[in-house]
Fold these 2 entries.
Entry 1:
Amino acid sequence: MTRLLRLYPQLLRTGFAEAVAYRAEFLIWMFSTNMPLVMLAIWAAAARSGPVSGYSQEGFAAYYLATLLVRLMTGAWVVWEMTMEIRQGTLALRLLRPIHPLLQWSADNLAAIPMRGVVAIPVAAILLYVARSELSHDWFSWLLLFPALLGAWLLYFLVQAIIGTFALRFESAASLFDAWLGFSNILSGYLVPLDLFPRAVRSVAVVLPFRFQLSFPVELMLGRWSRGEALELLVAQWAYVLLFLGLARVAWRSGLRHYAAYGG
Amino acid sequence: MIEVDRLRKWYRVHRRAPGLGAALRSLFHRAYEDVKAVEDVSFSISAGERVGFLGPNGAGKTTTLKVLSGLLYPTEGRVSVAGFLPQERARGFLAQITLVMGQKQQLLWDLPPSETFLLNRAIYDIPRKQYDATMAELTELLELGPLLGKPARQLSLGERMKCELAVALLHRPKVLFLDEPTIGLDVSMQATVRGFVRAYNERFGATVLLTSHYMEDVAALCPRVMVIDKGRLIYDGGLSDLVRRVRPDKRMLLRLSRPVERRDLEALGSVIEHRDAEAIVQVSQDALQPAVARALSSLPLTDLTVEDPPLEEVMRDLFAQGRAA
């Protein structure tokens, strides 16, 4: 553990240096995360004549700007990195180092957060300006937001890592992740707030892990939960984090047994 | 230091014929085939040895190196490196080995090599004093000074390989697996890399297992060679013994003060090359002494050298014999 504490800051420094080296590509990629704005335009139009399921125009603005903010702050791309490195054979060099590759990738992904701030900070400023009244007034919700964002990021990262291990067996996992992303976009509240789902779908969506990747931190920002409920949801989110961490370790170990290290 | 006992590594690969029909059929029925990359290979290498690992493309060299470095699980057999089972990839094991692949790089592509050095310093937990000393030494031996601040992508192939070697050896590994470390390099850079590997081996007593298509690498670095073909070890021993066994003939390199007739040369042995005042004649080991005596007495010699056949030819003959058998 002490070794990790010594090592991780250097991993973050290197990850940041790489993010800066790819800054143009990185910014373009972030600007491509614009789906919440499209959905905002649609739902704001729908709510012009009156609230939809309790969401006014300001309510939708707050929801989708918060969604955009959470998505920007919890981005991960490890599944594509894994697939590329496995196909090109460069994973071999990573495996030769006495550090778990997932730790190294986690630092690469986390180190890009300051770069994401370039886009996220203006979004946060607009959110405050446009929909201040819709945001939570309880400092406790904002306090829980940090572990909730970290949990959301970890879930997103670990899901990608688990799916990425399929590339160790089949050389590609990107299409499998696309399938996951399809479900996730709907069931995490990315496209539509979970409140707007039919009751039956909603009752399923609230127990699946997808909501903890996005909807839960958004709901914290919007003050949808009492302190007790928010704490319970945070515990549930971190239970999923631990479960996915265990799954990622098992999937990684098992995938390595099938790894063929093709090329060169 | 390295023990390999009856190692087997098989890959399961999907096979299908070309064309749309075959592609559609493969949707419903996928045919697989086991490729026996390494088959029943055993050897042992002592600490500090430099061993060349030779074989044609696809013979199983790289697969064996990948098993030894813990990248691949053996299908069968037992492998031990520095007292560890490589496939367990224990931290203590990874800290003692390195694998340099001439066609793969661990340098961070868009950052200067100095960033990769700092990263590896943290990953291998190298004490600051040792890091500074090693860096100073590597910088001097490989003339890295001007390269450390340039992005890796802007370095030439040779410059990059020097940095790759330095990064790979920063943690002072005890076992070096070198897979085609000189591929694509010019002659002078090849010599630099060879000199560096030898110096590292002598200085730290490191064990070196090298694969290379450049026979000069093997001849200059490895007193012992192992030859693998179609996944099986077909020779393990001294390089000079291998040459004697496969090609027991010698070559006389003759330099003459004036041109001579071809038949004068043919009286010595079989003529491989004949140009004006230079010739190469091949003779069997038994006939070497009389042939030299005859050349000295009958030809206008200015110089005479006796050599083994080129290693490339020895290897070609060895693999041809293997295939014929």
Entry 2:
Amino acid sequence: MKHLLPVLTVVIALLAVWYIACIPMNVKEVLTTAERAGVPIDPPSAAERRDMGHLALVLRNTDALGGSWSQDRARLPSPHQITAELWKSTWEEEVNGRRGIVRSGSLSNRSLIYHGWITLSATFVGFLIGAGLGVLLAVGIVHSRVMDMSVMPWAIISQTIPIVALAPMIIVVLYSVGINGLIPKAIISAYLSFFPVVVGMVKGLRAPDHMQLDLLKTYNATKSQTFWKLRLPSSVPYLFTSLKIGIAASLVGAIVGELPVQRGGLGARMLGGSYYGQTEQIWAALFVAAGMAALLVWLIGWLEKRTLTRMGMLT
Amino acid sequence: MILVVLAFVFWIAAWGLNGYLANGPFAKQPWVSIAVPAIFGITILVCWELIVRGAGVPAVILPPPTQIASTLVANLDVIWGDFVQTFIKGALSGYLIGCGAGFLLAILVDRYQFLRKGLLPVGNFMAALPIVGTAPILVMWFGFDWQSKAAVVVIMVFFPMLVNTVAGLRDTTAMQRDLMRTYGAGYFQTLFKLRLPAAMPFIFNGLKITTTLALIGAIVAEFFGSPTRGMGFRISTSVGQLALDMVWAEIVAAAIAGSLFYGAVTFLEQRVTFWHPSQRAKQ
């Protein structure tokens, strides 16, 4: 808790900067609105204002800026507008809306709960596939020298290339063979979480040093006994570290996978918002995505803590 | 059908050769550690080619590697233009600005304990977020050209760089700092002569992680809107035209660019941190 005060200070400072930044970012639209309401504006014609700097406009019209934090479709919506949008597109939409779960019995396709769930389910399925295959490949790599020498360099190189670029192609190709919905997105998620897990898990399975391996040899332990009793337990901390990276990557994969096909999900909400200039919608989707990422990483961290405590590796 | 069978035969033969090289009498030779992954890569390409041609997979689903290679060579000027737009203008400028800003803020944060305690948890949190999601907003602010891509890259690389540099600056022992104090060294002398050199392995770790992030940011940002060139633009439009050989050619180009970028930073790291145990072990 000793971090609470500094963290709060930083967060409040960030919010303050945000509110101040709203003034120059939104000044042109705000002045146009004020002009329509009959307030005198310093350069009276919109054409003159268009070519002026944002800060100069702010300084010359200090008394007409009241709308900076309530502008519709603002270039930078203020935090309370985004909070209102979040509330509106979750609770309001589901409980009071015509399409909401209370009235219609199914989640509204306008609510962030619905879109968030689409993204989250693809993330989960993809992450489970990717992490599972990653662990299996890592076990193979540790036990077979051929696999180690053939596959490992490629697994490391693949971390330096932007795999996300494959996403639109995977979606469209799978769509053309008749697979759509959750599976293509899950495949991208799996692909992104696969390599971090392989690399981390191999490192973990190799973590036992010579002394420990020699001890098991003097016990006359078989290869599988060495694996289950020494290698696997000592790989657990490494596994969880790479799972945290993997699940964050999975979420990015699911969001990017939703861009080419507009069939729901947070990525679709963001792209739709940017097409129609609905900035609050983009920001709200972004915040839900951020919250989900934090939740997922925290979930893995919680599992890590519990597992390590039960194993006696964390005191 | 014969080609598909041939692919399996080739696969088994190559696997056998690799097994012999990895476990046989040459296993300790240095060239084997390059030959084995190379043979594996070639095997994948050959099997891909044979299976795609043998089973008659249409080119709109998976083009064979030879077709991708010929597309790559035939469109080299287009791909070079995309590379300049996305990598040099978007990714590289954003990378330099973002890493520079992260580094400078890290030095400032390190100086004040209050800032460190407050900013580090926030930075760690931000580093785990799907920051690519800010791309539509930044495209709206900075326009369709490379400036918006550079802005996405700046935000993506900033936090990993900040967190790594701060961790590195704390990586001196009390003994070392005491020694500097007995020399009567001031803050800046200690910073430049002890703490920054000691932080270099961490800084380079941050620089290496962020190379991939920079390319990802620049490419994904182009999916949200770009001028009529750029790797992300070419990928998304070629997918729309079902010109998958062009998509694969762009991906090959992006992969080469990413690996070279990473390799360049690694090369620099070896030059700068030659004294570190992890580098000395290799020599």
